[in-house]
Amino acid sequence: MAPSTEFPGNLFYAITFFGFMAFFVYSVGIRFHWFLRGQWVNRFTEPIRRALGLIPFVLGNARVARRKYWYSGTLHSLIFWGFIVLQVRTLNFLLNGIHEDASFESLLGDVYTIGLRPVMEAFNALVIVGVLMAAWQRFFWRPQRMTLNIDGWVCLGLIGWMMVTDIFTNSAEIALERPNHEWASFVAFGFAELWDGIGFSGQGMELFHVAWWYSHLVTFLVFLVYLPYSKHSHIITVAPSIFFRSLQPSGVLQPIKDFETAESFGVGKLEAFNWKQMLDSYTCTECGRCTAACPANITGKLLSPKEVIVDIRHLLEEQVRRLSPTTHRPEQPTPLIEEVGFEPIWDCVTCGACMYECPVFIEHVPTIIDMRRYLVMEESNMPETAQATLMQLEQRGHPWRGTQLTRTTWIEEMAAEGIEIPMFDGSQEHLLWVGCTGALQERNVKVTKATARLLLEAGVSFGVLGNEEGCSGDPARRLGNEYLFQMQAQGNIELFKAKGVQKLITMCPHCFNTMKHEYPQLDTDARSGHFEVIHHSLLLERLVAEGKLRPLSTNGLSEKIATYHDPCYLARHNDILDEPRRVLASTGAKTQEMTRRRKEAFCCGAGGSHVWMEESGGQRINNVRTEEAVETGADIIAVACPFCMQMFEDGVGAVPQAAEKEMQVLDLAELLDMSVSYSKPAAAAAPPADEPPAAEGEGAAAEGGE
Ligand code: SF4
Ligand code: SF4
């Protein structure tokens, strides 16, 4: 019995409904029109996988409701699921407004009344609980990561009011009509009983019904047209954003194609972003989880990944009046780099914590690197240490300024110890990719030697490239010099092909990530499985499991406590979590986990080529992580990455508790090398368990210039 089925109610209903709907369609339309003005990126591959992802990540709230965000997750789930279920009720309400016979209630009969009404009634109440929880959080328990603004309150108020008007409208309908199965709308029924109890009926009740009915209609329509202009626009964009999410590991960057014909490189203005990045800026819920996990932000730097995404949206609204007529517009449009800030763009260590935490799959790292690419390739505008590193890469083919070592020093040293390292000639099964750090830094050379000894002991067929090896290209790519990356990567790919490389072992998660996922972007052969890339932790774990390496439980390590630090490019970006832990466990050392571990591990501060850069301010990231390691009571920080090794060596020197304790930083290969029972002459070179390799104390950011 909707009041809109008779004149003048039907006229008011038609004008209001179609007017608001038209404005809603217009508002959404201009946004999508602007998104599509972004650069093309193909996100239409694997549609079934994309669609299936909507089940856990949109319907299931899988990321929103992670355990550590249980309160926000619960309230969001209540409101979100309530919204989904109540769509049926809203549609029924709108159809009923046109004609009683057009409503679900009339079409479905008891299925709707007995089957759906109680469920919807329950969700109606649960949404109110969710809204009250959200209000409580904002008033009394607001996490620092959340921004409190009027927009949030307006949205919460409208949602809550929609539920209240719905319940009261229903209660009036029940009181007036006393339909069959009136109990099915149990909340509204309770109020109807109350109205009866206090003798509220007749014409007064009819007016009461009309007032609540129109109030519900107008609240719903106001909410609808307000949405595109609010930060809650994610309600509209979240499903497309998650459908079009990147299906690649989070550490992968996309190549710049056609250097010859491209008019500009990287992103220095809004239109240079791709359409997905524009869409992301409207999907950000401003929950702040990315910033709360960002090591740069936590240690007091200017970077806030949330602000980077919000800045894009602000700039879009500043430049396009129709998107937000009330936004303040300066006389001269704000340049993108100025809006985001030079320092934040360079503060990022590409650890991916932001992307892992983001409930709506926003891709912060590629967005930040796109702006770095612009600064480096278009403006040559970068911190001094980044410039020096790039220059070193271009001139010397490696990033380590001041090193006295060559790529064959360690091979010659091993030969002097009586261990011959074979050169790769295509007859071996594996190429051992040593990496710049593994060959050119004293401390990491020890890891390389330990790995080589273990491979020889296990009878693994391998060879090395010696002076023919170059840089993988990862440092250049993360520093924004895509041109240099592609040159280095192409050179390596050609070399691998010429040498007949099938399988490649690397001790560096950064080389692992770039060779495994990014080389195939440049090489169709690699895309079809031309060569396999294996991180040494995976291989060592397999060799121990197969009995080809036999760690002894009687070695001195069983007296020690070790804590394993997950490298970002192994754990978060590549999902390698358990194998390194199994290698560590096999050495006999007692293990103790850090609080932030596995995919939630805190970065060591080296990623994004920051191992060669000075931090812009605040605390040093590696010191914070070293303090976390100290808290475990461990004697040893176990690492699986040459950059982590550098950062922790530095951290142990700088954190007094770590220095007093004489904490050791050891790679998994070194720990295994110390505990394995050698059957071949290589054993002579393995240091005894109570004399682990001494740290060289080299600084993480190299000084001087070669
Ligand atoms: S990748 Fe890491 S450092 Fe960069 S914005 Fe994300 S969380 Fe911060
Ligand atoms: S980018 Fe993601 S995690 Fe960060 S504030 Fe926006 S929605 Fe939250």
Describe what you observe in this structure.
The chain is mainly alpha-helical and 706 residues long. The protein has 3 domains: 68-229; 270-384, Fumarate Reductase Iron-sulfur Protein, Chain B, domain 2 (Orthogonal Bundle); 387-685, no CATH class. Helices cover 54% and strands 4% of the residues. The protein has 31 helices and 8 strands. It has helices spanning 9-35, 47-59, 70-98, 104-108, 110-140, 150-177, 186-197, 202-226, 234-243, 275-283, 289-293, 295-298, 305-319, 336-340, 342-347, 353-357, 364-378, 384-396, 409-416, 436-440, 442-458, 474-478, 482-499, 509-522, 524-527, 536-545, 578-586, 621-631, 642-654, 656-660, 668-675, and strands at residues 430-433, 462-463, 503-506, 532-535, 561-564, 590-591, 636-639, 664-667. It has a 4-stranded parallel sheet with strand order 2-1-3-4, sandwiched between helices. The protein has a 4-stranded parallel sheet with strand order 6-5-7-8, with helices on both faces. Strand 5 (561-564), helix 27 (578-586) and strand 6 (590-591) form a beta-alpha-beta unit. Helix 1 packs parallel to helix 8, helix 2 packs antiparallel against helix 9 and helix 3 packs across helix 5. The radius of gyration is 31 Å and the shape is elongated. The structure holds iron/sulfur cluster (2 copies). Residues 293-296, 303, 305, 348-354, 364-365 line the site of one iron/sulfur cluster. The site of one iron/sulfur cluster has 15 residues, from helix 11 and helix 13.
